């Protein structure tokens, strides 16, 4: 049987590459078509396939090169509309990569081609999208919405589902800016259905998901965020070489992983986000990634690493609150924690921004023994949760109110709120938060004289914190449970070790008295005895001693 000629082999490889594109085998498509291109230059149609496949596997620079060549060939051939579409995708990729000057240049080229051609075509809708986004960014969502709507109508008229999806996405973002939250989420749901059903080109997937998850984060709609994350992940599994997540959505994915207790995965995703968002430099979302890393370090008790991450996040323009104040609380620096969280609350510009700070504010005010401020904050959080009807926020509100009621000595009412919060965290699948509320439930049981109930709740919380690696919380539980101490206790009684452990978790004397159900005067006497026996002079020295001698 005769061997195929070089020309025949090239044609076979070309056909295979085109078929791989149809089958969504993006890496194989890229490899096959670039192999042909090395032997003889591809035409504009195949260059566009190379450019789009390259983008989908994360080879952005090769994508831009291929699409630029395709644009040049189409423009020289007088095919203005197709060249303009090529210019749009170039602008789309460059804008998403943070290269706004280059992206703007390609968009201007595409617009000029269409103006010179003067024809009614679907490409008019594509070039309308960046202009609408520009107007949205200047604070005119109503005008932007109208422009997105025009683009959507062009997509429908020319039966172009990808354009329709991108325009609908823009309408959702504009609706959010207009305060129309329900309309915004409904429009983005529509886009995500189109993406996961394979009705639009996969290049839209990442940006649609990013917009969806940002809106979900802003409105505390974590159920919807999780649902679409799962759906899109399943869709991506059919395209193993696809790289759909490239920007800020990586950070939000890390936040979801953290919430659901996958802390190592969350750290890995946050690291990936920081790396991707650092090139090109200057993207402010890198600060968000660093903040998530700081949160994970803090929860694991790696306080020095947490401090560095918060400082670096602040350098990139992301405010390190409430994490930094909670870090100060964990370091037993209650005054610094109070100052930081109060300033953050004063600067919070709107209701949702305050809602993100209020749970930490309640916790810190309780540690500072300012029950009036803690109650006021818990009530504000409950009002915001009622306004938004968001299960996540409602659970936070029940959690905070339960903590306040416990500090006020109302164990029965506290237990009612805290059990409601625990059920909410279970439904959301937030193991760390569920563990924290079980500690409070245990303390409420102790307040009501049910020591067995307290022991069981603390034991359940201890297991959660061990699984997660939440060292500071584990130390607190051990202190509350009164575990057997080591020789490093240096003559301290079991109760004094309990007090020392709670001092090391940043609790004030009043907070310790509440948790151990003893008087504040008794706590002060224990603290004085600890300082005398261990030859210490401050709570910070006591904290350092407790950690150095593995008492926590």
TrEMBL record:
The keyword Transcription regulation applies. Residues 485-550 form the HTH luxR-type domain. Coiled coil: none annotated. It holds the Pfam family GerE. It comes from the Bacteria. SUPFAM superfamilies: C-terminal effector domain of the bipartite response regulators, TPR-like. Keywords: DNA-binding, Transcription, Transcription regulation. The keyword Transcription applies. PANTHER family: DNA-BINDING TRANSCRIPTIONAL ACTIVATOR DEVR_DOSR (PTHR44688). This is HTH luxR-type domain-containing protein. The lineage of its organism: Bacteria, Bacillati, Actinomycetota, Actinomycetes, Propionibacteriales.
């Amino acid at each position: 049987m005769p061997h195929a000629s070089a020309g025949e082999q090239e044609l076979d490889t070309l056909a295979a590459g085109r078929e791989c594109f149809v089958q969504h085998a993006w890496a194989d498509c890229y490899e096959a078509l670039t192999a042909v291109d090395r032997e003889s230059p591809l035409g504009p149609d195949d260059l566009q396939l190379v450019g789009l496949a390259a983008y989908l596997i994360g080879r952005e620079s090769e994508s831009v090169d291929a699409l630029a060549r395709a644009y040049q060939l189409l423009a020289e051939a007088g095919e203005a509309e197709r060249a303009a579409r090529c210019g749009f995708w170039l602008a789309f990729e460059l804008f998403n990569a943070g290269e706004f000057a280059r992206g703007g240049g390609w968009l201007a080229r595409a617009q000029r081609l269409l103006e010179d051609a003067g024809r009614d075509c679907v490409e008019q809708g594509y070039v309308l999208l960046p202009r609408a986004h520009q107007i949205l960014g200047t604070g005119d969502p109503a005008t932007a919405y109208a422009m997105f709507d025009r683009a959507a109508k062009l997509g429908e008229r020319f039966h172009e589902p990808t354009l329709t999806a991108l325009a609908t996405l823009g309408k959702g973002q504009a609706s959010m800016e207009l305060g129309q939250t329900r309309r915004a989420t409904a429009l983005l749901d529509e886009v995500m259905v189109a993406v996961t059903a394979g009705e639009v080109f996969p290049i839209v997937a990442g940006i649609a998901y990013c917009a969806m998850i940002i809106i979900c984060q802003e409105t505390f709609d974590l159920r919807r965020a999780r649902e679409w994350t799962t759906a899109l992940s399943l869709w991506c599994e059919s395209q193993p070489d696809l790289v759909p997540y490239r920007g800020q959505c990586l950070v939000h994915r890390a936040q979801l992983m953290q919430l659901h207790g996958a802390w190592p995965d969350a750290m890995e995703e946050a690291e990936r986000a920081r790396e991707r968002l650092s090139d090109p430099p200057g993207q402010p979302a890198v600060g968000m990634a660093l903040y998530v890393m700081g949160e994970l370090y803090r929860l694991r008790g790696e306080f020095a690493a947490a401090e560095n991450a918060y400082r670096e996040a602040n350098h990139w323009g992301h405010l390190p609150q409430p994490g930094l104040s909670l870090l100060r609380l964990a370091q037993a620096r209650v005054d610094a924690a109070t100052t930081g969280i109060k300033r953050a609350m004063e600067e919070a510009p709107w209701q949702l921004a305050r809602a993100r700070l209020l749970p930490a504010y309640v916790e810190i005010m309780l540690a500072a023994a300012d029950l009036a401020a803690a109650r006021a904050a818990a009530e504000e959080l409950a009002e915001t949760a009622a306004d938004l009807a968001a299960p996540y926020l409602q659970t936070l509100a029940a959690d905070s109110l339960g903590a306040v009621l416990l500090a006020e000595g109302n164990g029965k009412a506290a237990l009612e709120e805290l059990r409601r919060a625990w059920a909410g965290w279970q439904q959301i699948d937030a193991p760390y938060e569920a563990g924290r509320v079980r500690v409070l439930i245990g303390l409420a049981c102790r307040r009501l004289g049910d020591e067995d109930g307290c022991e069981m709740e603390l034991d359940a919380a201890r297991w959660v914190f061990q699984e997660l690696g939440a060292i500071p919380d584990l130390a607190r539980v051990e202190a509350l449970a009164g575990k057997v101490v080591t020789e490093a206790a240096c003559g301290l009684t079991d109760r004094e070790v309990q007090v020392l452990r709670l001092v090391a978790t940043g609790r004030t004397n009043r907070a310790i008295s509440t948790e151990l159900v003893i008087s504040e005067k008794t706590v002060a006497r224990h603290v004085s005895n600890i300082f005398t026996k261990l030859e210490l002079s401050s709570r910070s020295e006591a904290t350092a001693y407790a950690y150095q001698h593995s008492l926590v």
